[in-house]
Specification:
Elements lengths: L3 E7 L5 H16 L3 E7 L8 E7 L3 H4 L3 E7 L5 H18 L1
Parallel strand pairs: 1-2, 1-3, 3-4
Helix pairs in contact: 1-3
GO biological process, one term: phosphoenolpyruvate-dependent sugar phosphotransferase system
Protein name: Ascorbate-specific phosphotransferase enzyme IIB component
Keywords: Transferase
């Protein structure tokens, strides 16, 4: 599998998406997973060509077809739940190839 591309998104791509990006990068680093992580605004999500999208749940309708795996987060400060969802998404991506 090529390097996984993960996109975090929020309304303007500068607030919660940046926090999510840093949190996802920390998870990947701790697990030794090599992936590219970017944060963008929700309007750019369809053209991001990402393998996985991580967003807050209220953006779910806007991103449901934007990537192979969509991770919806209700509380992005719940690090353990975010970790579990991101790692499950990675496993799904690895099994698709």
């Amino acid at each position: 599998m090529d390097k996984i591309k993960i996109v975090t998104a929020c309304g303007v791509g500068m607030g919660s998406s940046l926090i999510l990006k840093m949190m996802v990068e920390d998870i990947l680093k701790a697990e030794g997973i090599d992936a590219k992580v970017e944060n963008i605004d929700i309007g750019s999500i369809k053209s991001a060509n990402a393998d996985m999208v991580v967003v807050q749940s209220f953006h779910e309708d806007k991103v449901k077809d934007a990537a192979k795996v969509v991770v919806n987060i209700d509380n992005f400060l719940d690090k353990e739940k975010l970790k579990n969802k991101v790692l499950e998404g990675i496993r799904v991506l690895q099994n698709k190839d």
